[in-house]
TrEMBL record, chain A:
Keywords: Cell membrane, Membrane, Transmembrane, Transmembrane helix, Transport
Record field: transmembrane: 9-30, 112-134, 146-170, 190-210, 254-276, 296-322
Pfam families linked: BPD_transp_1 (PF00528), BPD_transp_1_N (PF19300)
Membrane topology, record value: Multi-pass membrane protein
UniProt name for this protein: ABC transporter permease
Cellular compartment(s): Cell membrane
InterPro entries, alphabetized: BPD_transp_1_N, MetI-like, MetI-like_sf
Automatic annotation (TrEMBL), chain B:
Source organism per UniProt: Agromyces salentinus
Keyword Cell cycle: no
Name of the protein in its database record: ABC transporter ATP-binding protein
Coiled-coil blocks: none
Lineage: Bacteria, Bacillati, Actinomycetota, Actinomycetes, Micrococcales
Location within or outside the cell: Cell membrane
Topological category with respect to the lipid bilayer: Peripheral membrane protein
Residue stretches making up the ABC transporter domain: 19-268
Automatic annotation (TrEMBL), chain C:
Entry keyword Hydrolase: no
Keywords linked to the UniProt accession: Signal
Signal peptide boundaries: 1-23
Keyword match GTP-binding: no
Xref: Gene3D superfamilies: Dipeptide-binding Protein, Domain 3 (3.10.105.10), Periplasmic binding protein-like II (3.40.190.10)
Protein name: ABC transporter substrate-binding protein
PROSITE patterns assigned: PROKAR_LIPOPROTEIN
Location of the Solute-binding protein family domain: 89-474
Length: 331, 286, 564, 319
């Protein structure tokens, strides 16, 4: 077991290295000169050269890449002397447009993304699993069709469209909700909840749609299994049969999916955060892309990839605990 | 392999009819109209006796047993009459049938691996069956479970009770299924091709085990198989089915020695005659 | 000197662009503040789309941030308060007067007031002012207002305090006196020391570094920053060490200010229109075009302010490109553009006036003329075709327009494309990312035949308007603001003559006349004078649009009608 | 199992019982089954309608008299910020679906031209990803070994990538150029592994089937086996995957255009129209409702069709 995990970790590090290299290369060759970006409005060629050397942009590709990598573990210093800027480890880069370390920027925005992800995840698990179960148990009935049609719609509806629709209906027309505001839970719990409700709903809708389809397939699959017949033949109560025998085999595979999706969201729900003005990692990404703040884009890309890769490992480990066939070697 | 044993033991209880099935018809709706998968089947099972139902796959033999259990797949309807100890089973609510299942009629299925839930220990799966009908504490249930495992000759039962199905071999799994069925002391045991998925030596062990257990408990049994040779070893009465119809019914002796239906003759002709079962059968006749 | 307006150019261009795209800055012009005289106290909310560019006054350089700087920083002089010209007048702030020049205006002396302090109670001395300027000259942060770099006398390789040490040409004979030596006579130097990089910072505070101010500003004005989460919130509270008696400009009514950033423009408008809860105490930037229709009710009109931004949106035509080098072609384009459609795309009559001159009406010396008239400003494609034929393009003309990837500029560009098509002129778009737009059009090798951009004066004078845009000596490879690359001897000569004028009135009139002289060459198409329309909360008082800050609501004068 | 690389992408869910290698279901039977489903009939109608709309966009422009770029200043109110005159976003006898605020361009004609762009990009990307996905998937699944190792690692890598972020960053970094072509390229780079993964799995199971064994025994060259024996058996799967890929790309293209890195103006695009409409949502909701509805219906129709296709092919396989 330990060896398997270790091997997975090594592979993950490899993937992350590749992703960072790939991202770095793209920006190295395709992106406009970051020095010119930083130089901003009142720029001279001399000043550009200064910035280039300060940022190490005049170094060859591999040295720059190495600086970036080592910065993550040891931190790094830009420039020299009194004008030097230090970026403490783990340094994912330094944004010269905002004069902040990318790590700090991401950390500062993480709570919003986490709140968004946790709330949405709770909603979509509830709706997705509930809907999928209902649909599977009432297979072929009106309920099934209603849930599955809603799910198909959920998959087909772009979330920015849903966001606009909800905002128009619930806030502008019906005035059931106030405009979303950036308050913390402690400041005003009600307003906090009201402000997050729409983003949660919008984000959860698409995922719930997807999950209900998958849960339905899994449950129907499980219901057709021989062991379900055995359970019934034992004379168990129908709810017990469903709860104990159908649910666990149907939902265990969902864990894998959920882990990946949740990790993906921690890396920022780009569109939802942008549309609702939530200052999370996704918004940071969108803003940085608009400003072409290259170090931030690099940092976020890498973080998002790392989250997915780590989630992948965690999910695999969790899976072995949930499925005895993987956990216990056969005799 | 003792073929006479069950017979002698079953005699004291014979005569009290355990199960009477009359004019049982099972229909399924399809896009091209309803299809009868079992047509007008009638048979009886005496306490302590074994009825063998023989037929190819799709002949309706499994549907017959599922109809008795009240577990027909979605859409299937059964008409006619199924009486257990004189009580009509057809038309009962699912709730009432649940008390019949396991408690009065238990079933052992063909594929022991897929018939056990891979996510739970075998112990838990037997215990839950026991507790569903007898209530009681988990401790009692566990004790009964271990006893049942011991009865089906699983070595080291008190340890193995906490193992998962995939940790057992095929034969062992079928023993577990049998233990699960027997721990409830049912009046009727339906064994639906219990040995088909097993290799020959294991198959023999399981048959022997079933015979021993039947002798101990006096349970009536329906043994479903496509294998006439097996039927000849276990059943007193035989029912042959083809395409949902009952083509032959009678005592094992009658059927094997003097088959009336052409289909039965064909089946018999197809039997391997490495060692002629009929000689043996004749030898053990009353 | 030689670079001066080049830097300036791009800076201002960016600022107008920010105003345009964020709807978070502000406008100018109603006759009196909304809701009468404010009371002291309460929290004023500000809803804004994008965060401030920089809290470091050496780095930030647009109308919105300059307006904000006045709340936390003080400079030797500053702009006045009040509408129109009152607001753009240069008045003393930390200094006792607007400075004393020597005879040829190359040495300027200022004296500091008494009882002026930083937020920790340390008195502000002339050394602190000097340090603030020296610090702002560091190349890694000197991206704000360029005037210090342009006019101060200093060694060519001077790179700010941290690299090059103190600058000897700023003298501080005593704690209250500061003397600046300039590299040229500069009559408007009083306006220069009002620019944000002249903000004082404690000279002997070790914790002040090149980048620290952007994170932790040190207040000299009436408020200090108590909470700042970039992109989301900014809170100001009173600076107890600011003495109102030393400050004739700032009223500082509210006890605190609270900014919320990152809100979508439409959402800000909806919140301001609804005006519920805390939004009653809120102000915001100009509404979007879409919201104009929604603010027409009397209740909302009562709390609506509007005014010109004081900037010009225009389309420079690159006079060095083949075809575009022919004045006839440029005139034809001027004739063909349907400015009405451009205005509609920008939000219609409430958000923009049509421009026929380069200088906006808010600049002193503004002279009205229209050299390329058409009925209802809808363009005259027939006249344009004739001119094109005369120029040798009877079958039409084709050019590429650089535009910013931003909905409003795209709408303007599409309107131009559509109207020029009727005169047989094909316009192709080169869409440039918002982040790199000014870099591209300010790089002579990268810009195309035309662009859509804007310009705001730094203070209300033609001197900060026409030369950066049309003076031939100000064409630079990079950071170029003369996007038309106009290099006309007559224009160059006239600019030099006006600069030498000492009579302000005469100079202003001359700038006005020069505007017309330039437009005869048609190096650009003036499109619009955009306006700001702002809805404020029902409990907001003393709000008016300040002409010096792109028409934004003057932060130092606004407050609440009731503080509860 | 997670096939959704981004918030945008529509799930293509290759999991489950796709038709495997046994006898391909006769097309006629599939069609006759599908024709009985009202949902499928509805979807096909929607798709046909959208395709017709796209193909005959210029005809529509001629009928309505509006070109997609033509301004109509009489349809908007300049004094009210350029809001369309008339109810429901300026719907009138001359503008059947109303006009865009600010310039009065005809929404119906722009929707039709937008459909061209959307369909062209989605179908091109589908063709490319299907070709690459099928070829690479078959190579990986059928030959195994080193080829499989390499292809699988590349797929893992691309699927672990935060592709939405990356698509946006890439598109905003790339020079404007030919946007539709760039979009197809970017969608293809991140899209093919989702096809390849399913094909690989099926090719692996087909590798050991009797008819492949038989072909091998008869001395057929591997390449020939792949194209003559394996490929025809994957036909159903490929059709389903391609049908489900189209809506996914339409959705992603619209999302990228919504974020301002997709199709560039003045070229009309649905996502871009919705993006422009964000500022107008409270005043002129029709401006986002109309393109949003078209986008939704198109994606929905393709998804329903793909879903049903899969179900019928599965059932055909089971029967």
């Amino acid at each position: 077991m330990a060896i398997t995990i270790l091997r997975r970790l090594l592979a993950a590090v490899g993937v992350l290295l590749l992703i960072s290299l790939f991202t770095f290369m793209i920006f190295f060759w395709l992106s406009p000169d970051p020095a010119v970006q930083i130089c901003g409005k009142t720029c001279t060629p001399e000043r550009i050269d200064q910035i280039r050397s300060q940022l190490g942009l005049d170094l060859p590709f591999w040295q720059q890449y190495w600086q970036f990598l080592s910065g993550i573990f040891t931190g790094r210093t830009y420039g020299e002397g009194a004008a030097a800027i230090t970026c403490a480890a783990p340094c994912l880069g330094f944004s010269f447009q905002t004069n902040e370390s990318v790590t700090d920027m991401i950390v500062a925005r993480m709570p919003v993304s986490v709140t968004l992800a946790v709330g949405a995840a709770a909603l979509w698990l509830l709706a997705g699993i509930g809907g999928g179960l209902l649909s599977a148990v009432k297979q072929g009935t009106g309920w099934d069709r209603a849930v599955m049609t809603t799910a198909l719609a959920g998959i087909s509806l772009p979330n920015y469209f849903v966001a606009l629709l909800l905002q128009y209906l619930l806030v502008v027309q019906l005035r059931w909700l106030p405009f979303p505001q950036s308050v913390t839970f402690t400041e005003d719990p009600l307003l906090w909840f009201q402000s997050y409700l729409m983003p949660w709903l919008v984000l959860a809708f698409g995922y719930a749609a997807m999950y209900s389809r998958i849960v339905r397939t899994n449950v129907i699959d499980t219901l057709g299994q021989n062991f379900m017949r055995t359970a019934k033949a034992k004379g168990l109560d129908a709810p017990v049969v469903l709860r104990r025998h159908a649910l666990r085999p149907s939902l265990t595979p969902v864990v894998t999916l959920f882990g990946m999706d949740f990790a993906g969201l921690l890396g920022g729900a780009l569109i939802t955060e942008t549309v609702f003005g939530l200052n999370g990692v996704g918004k940071l990404t969108a803003d940085s892309i608009a400003k072409n703040d290259q170090p931030v884009i690099m940092g976020v890309t890498l973080l998002a990839a790392a989250l997915v890769v780590v989630a992948n490992i965690l999910v695999d480990v969790t899976y072995t605990y949930l499925d005895p066939r993987v956990r216990v070697k056969s005799a | 392999m003792s073929l006479t044993a069950p017979r002698t033991i079953s005699i004291p209880v014979a005569g009290s009819t355990l199960l009477e099935v009359d004019h049982l018809t099972v229909t399924f709706p399809t896009s091209s109209g309803p299809v009868e998968v079992v047509k007008d089947a009638s048979f009886r099972v005496e306490s302590g006796d074994t009825l063998g139902i023989v037929g190819e796959s799709g002949s309706g033999k499994s549907m017959t047993s599922l109809a008795i259990m009240g577990l027909l797949p979605r859409g299937g309807t059964a008409t006619g009459s199924i009486r257990l100890n004189g009580h009509e089973l057809l038309g009962r609510s699912d709730r009432e049938m649940r008390r019949v299942r396991g408690d009065k009629v238990a079933m052992v299925f063909q594929d022991p691996l897929s018939s056990l839930n891979p996510y739970y220990t075998v112990g838990l799966q037997i215990e839950e069956a026991y507790r569903a009908h007898n209530g009681g504490s988990r401790r009692d249930a566990r004790r009964v479970t271990i006893e049942a495992l011991e009865r089906v000759r699983i070595a080291d039962a008190s340890r193995r009770v906490d193992h998962y199905p995939h940790q057992f071999s095929g034969g062992m799994r079928q023993r577990i299924m049998i233990a699960m069925a027997l721990c409830l002391e049912p009046d009727l045991l339906i064994a639906d091709e219990p040995t088909t998925a097993l290799d020959v030596t294991v198959q023999a062990q399981i048959l022997e085990l079933l015979a021993d257990l039947q002798r101990e408990t006096g349970t009536g049994m329906i043994f479903i198989t496509h294998d006439l040779a097996v039927v000849s070893q276990v059943a007193q009465d035989v029912l042959v089915m083809k395409d949902g119809e009952q083509v032959e019914a009678g005592t094992a002796e009658q059927v094997f020695s003097n088959p009336r239906a052409a289909y039965t003759r064909a089946l018999l002709a197809a039997l391997p005659r490495i060692d002629d079962p009929f000689d043996e059968l004749k030898g053990t006749s009353r | 000197m030689k670079r001066r307006t080049a830097f300036l150019g791009l800076a201002i261009a960016t600022s107008i662009a920010l105003v345009g795209c964020t709807a978070a800055d502000t406008g100018s012009g109603s006759t009196e503040g909304v809701g009468g005289e404010p009371v002291t106290g309460g929290t004023l909310q500000v809803l804004q789309n994008t965060d401030f560019s920089h809290l470091d006054p050496a780095q930030g350089f647009d109308g919105g941030v300059n307006n904000f700087y006045r709340l936390i920083y003080r400079t030797l002089t500053t702009q006045g308060v009040g509408e129109g010209a009152e607001g753009t007048e240069i008045v003393p702030d930390l200094a006792t007067d607007t400075g004393t020049p020597n005879e040829d205006a190359t040495v300027w002396t200022f004296t500091l007031k008494d009882d002026i302090f930083f937020e920790d109670g340390t008195p502000i001395t002339s050394a602190d002012v000097k340090f603030g300027v020296e610090r702002s000259l560091d190349p890694s942060i000197s991206i704000g207002s360029p005037y210090a770099k342009i006019v101060l006398y200093m060694p060519e390789d001077y790179q700010g305090f941290y690299i090059s040490g103190p600058l000897d040409t700023i003298e501080t004979p005593d704690e209250k006196t500061i003397v600046f030596h300039l590299n040229q006579p500069y009559a408007d130097f009083a306006a220069v020391v009002g620019q944000a990089p002249f903000t004082p910072f404690p000279a002997d505070d070790e914790s002040v570094t090149t980048t620290s101010i952007d994170q932790q500003p040190i207040a000299s004005g009436p408020y200090r920053v108590t909470e700042y989460q970039r992109g989301s919130t900014l809170v100001l509270e009173r600076n107890e060490h600011w003495d109102a008696s030393t400050d004739d400009v700032r009223k500082a009514y509210p006890d605190s200010f609270e900014w919320t950033f990152g809100l979508d423009g439409a959402t800000i408008d909806e919140r301001m229109i609804a005006g519920q809860g805390d939004d009653q105490n809120a102000i915001a930037g100009s509404v979007q075009a879409a919201s104009i229709a929604r603010i027409q009710t009397p209740e909302i009109q009562e709390r609506t302010i509007q005014g010109l931004q004081g900037c010009t949106t225009y389309m420079p035509l690159n006079t060095t490109k083949p075809g575009m080098d022919d004045p006839l072609v440029r005139q034809a384009i001027n004739l063909a553009v349907n400015k009405q459609a451009v205005k509609d795309g920008t939000g219609g009559s409430q958000l923009a006036d049509i421009a026929t001159t380069m200088m906006p009406p808010t600049v002193a010396g503004f002279t009205e003329f229209d050299l390329y008239p058409s009925e209802d400003f809808e363009g005259d494609p027939e006249a344009a075709k004739e001119l094109l034929a005369e120029a040798g393009y009877p079958d039409g003309f084709e050019f590429t327009l650089d535009i910013r990837n931003n909905p409003k500029m795209q709408a303007q560009a599409e309107a131009i494309q559509q109207s020029l098509a009727q005169a047989g002129i094909t316009v192709n778009f080169n869409l440039i990312d918002s982040a790199t737009f000014y870099e591209v059009i300010g790089t002579t090798s990268q810009q195309h035949d035309a662009a859509i951009t804007g310009w705001c004066p730094d203070w209300a004078s033609g001197a900060t308007f026409l030369p950066p845009l049309f003076e031939g000596t100000q064409i630079f490879e990079k950071g170029n603001s003369n996007v038309a690359q106009l290099n006309d001897p007559a224009v160059n000569e006239r600019i030099a003559e006006i600069r030498a004028m000492t009579d302000v009135e005469e100079a202003n009139a001359a700038w006005g006349a020069l505007d017309e002289q330039i437009m005869e060459l048609a190096p650009a198409v003036p499109l619009l004078f955009e306006k700001a329309v702002m809805v404020v909360g029902s409990n907001v008082a003393g709000a008016y649009a300040h002409a010096g800050f792109s028409g934004g609501i003057d932060y130092v004068s606004v407050g609440l009608a009731s503080a509860e | 199992m997670s096939t959704v690389p981004s918030e945008l992408a529509v799930e293509t869910e290759p999991k489950g019982v796709l038709p495997t290698g046994s006898a391909p279901t006769p097309a006629r039977r599939v069609i006759s089954t599908l024709r009985k489903s009202p949902a499928v009939v509805f979807s096909v109608c929607v798709i046909v309608f959208i395709v017709l709309l796209a193909v005959f966009a210029p005809v529509l422009a001629a009928i309505t008299g509006w070109d997609p770029y033509e301004f109509d200043p009489t349809a908007i109110d300049s004094d009210l910020g350029g809001v369309p005159i008339g109810p429901f976003g300026g719907i009138s006898s001359s503008h059947w679906l109303g006009v865009e605020p600010g310039n009065g361009r005809d929404i119906l004609v722009r929707i039709a031209y937008g459909a061209r762009v959307s369909l062209m990009i989605a179908v091109s990307a589908t063709l490319i990803t299907t070709t690459f996905g099928v070829v690479l998937g078959m190579v990986a699944g059928f030959f195994g070994g080193l080829a499989d190792q390499i292809i699988s690692r590349v797929m893992d890598f691309l699927m672990a990538f935060p592709s939405l972020i990356f698509m946006i960053a890439l598109l905003s970094a790339l020079p404007a150029g030919n946007r539709p072509a760039l979009l197809v390229l970017v969608l293809s780079i991140f899209g093919w592994p989702y096809t390849a993964r399913v094909i690989r799995g099926q090719a692996m199971s087909l590798r050991n089937s009797e008819f492949v064994e038989a072909a091998r025994a008869s001395g057929a060259r591997p390449v020939k086996i792949v194209f003559r024996e394996v490929l025809p058996n994957l036909r159903g799967t490929i059709i389903v995957l391609a049908t489900l890929a189209v809506p996914s790309y339409i959705g992603t293209e619209a999302g990228l255009s919504f974020l301002g890195v997709g199709v560039m103006p003045p070229t009309p695009s649905w996502g871009q129209m919705i993006s422009t409409a964000v500022g107008w949502y409270a005043v002129d909701p029709m401006f986002f409702l109309i393109p949003g509805t078209f986008l939704f219906l198109t994606v929905f129709a393709f998804t329903v069709l793909g879903d049903n296709l899969r179900r019928v092919l599965d059932a055909g396989d089971a029967a």
